[in-house]
Amino acid sequence: MAPMISFRKVNKWFGSNHVLKDVTFDVVEGEVVVICGPSGSGKSTLIRCINRLEPIGNGELVVDGISVNDRKADINRLRQEIGIVFQSFNLFPHMTALENITLAPLKVRKMSKEEAEATGLRLLARVGMPEKANAYPAHLSGGQQQRVAIARALAMHPKIMLFDEPTSALDPEMIKEVLDAMKDLVKDGMTMVVVTHEMGFAREVSHRITFMDNGIIVEENTPAEFFANPRSERTKQFLSKILKH
Amino acid sequence: MPPDYVGKVVIDNLPLLLEGFWITIWLSILSSLISLVLGTVIGVARIVPFRPLRSFGTVYVEFFRNTPLLIQLFFFYHGLPRAGITFSAFESALWSLAIYHAAYVAEAVRAGIQSIHRGQMEAARSLGFSYLATMRYIILPQAFAIVIPPLGNLFIALLKNTSLASTIAVAELLYQGEVLDSRTFRTFEIFTAVGILYLCLTLPLGGFVNLVERRLARAGRGA
Ligand SMILES: Nc1ncnc2c1ncn2[C@@H]1O[C@H](COP(=O)(O)OP(=O)(O)OP(=O)(O)O)[C@@H](O)[C@H]1O
Ligand SMILES: [Mg+2]
Q: Residue A93 is nearest to which of B128, B133, B142, comparing CB atoms?
């Protein structure tokens, strides 16, 4: 089976800063991959290349059978298949929770209003906040905003979900509710790439953990092996730091 | 009542002044609307990821902001006919007011757009919205909420600037005042009345802008 996401020797620079170095990395359908690594190692950049929020320098990046940086690629079409959830939620502040969720199905997918709202309400219930349909983001907690953001991405029925540190901006008591919503997706067989330092989540539900350092994928392994027998010195150092608290 | 009391000249000639008053209102509304649309387009042009459009926007703004409105008005009314393009006095006033103030609208809109967090554009594009659809549904609604106060002040300035149209004989409020003055020489009363009529427009407009501003703040939008 061809992978859903395939990086082949991808390089990326910001000016003279070499941020991704010969990255080769696959994600197959239904797989849940966690990416971790120190700050500035290129995790966000890697994930943002997948839906071309960042263009790559060279190499080959194919997502859902489409060469992402090909001039002929219909990027708006491809992006409909890729949901992304950001650290800072990025909800639309001038719209209610439900409007946030239904906007793209209505305007991009041209779904009928009834269908979009039914889907939106169902998704709000799924992330555990059916009563917040008419609330504006400013009146929601961080955890609630992030769950609306997840519902907003799901409303497009994406084939892939990307998460860039979805719980890093949250107070500890809200982290669980967001992780629970994500675990629910894993159960559904969603293809997921998750940048996170939540090692509990990584150990419990991911299929593979990728450790990045300085633009290089240093190590890829199953969660069990990753924690029990980290291969590189760099991974050991990172794990000892992160698992201490 | 004495045959000639203070303000009689105004009362007697009120229909004439009101005629001018309506033309001032009409001219203000039309040129505001045109400048709003034109200014928004140019404001967006100034930030799109396409160099030639950006340059065009910059040239437009710098040119029209940095030349006197009166000259632009004369250019339309006296200049263009020499090139075979004729506008009526009203049309000349309408277009020069709209084009001049569009430059200011563009600057306000651009500043509003740039104050919207980059994450808004990224979130919308990630959902599959095109650049222009993102502008329309996500960025501009938020930007407008932010620029309502400056735009309100701008339209108040535009309203006052319509008085320049009197120089090319558009029969607006100030022009009617001048006509009356040259007929009666009751300068003090006439121009006091004209000033009050301008205030009847600008003060409520200012109040309305404040109201909208407070409404938006209360709705918790643009947070
Ligand atoms: N838009 C940008 N312009 C210039 N440099 C950038 C940009 N985005 C990221 N970088 C640089 O690229 C490198 C990798 O950044 P990236 O955000 O991908 O790291 P990260 O692993 O996600 O870090 P963090 O854990 O802090 O989120 C860093 O050196 C960063 O300064
Ligand atoms: Mg990051």
A: B142
